[in-house]
Amino acid sequence: MPTQSPRVNVVLDNFLYQNIRLLAEKDNVSLSAKVRDLLKEALEIQEDIVLSAFTEKREQLWNDANTLTHDDVWS
Hints:
By secondary structure, the protein is mainly α.
C-alpha cells in the first residue's frame, strides 16, 4: 500500500550519500528513515539555537528591581 506521506527529492554528493547509507546500515533502518531522522534532529537543533538566542536576549533585559519575590506572588 503506497504511503500518503509527502516526499522530497534531494541530490546528495557521493560522500554524504555514503555516510548516510552507512549510518542506515548500522542502525538497520532504511535510507529514507535515516534521512528523515537526521532531518528531525537537525530541526530540533535549529529550534534550540533560536530558543537559546531568545533566552539570552531576555536575560540581558532582566532587572532584579522589577521582579517579585515568592511572598509577593503567593501572599
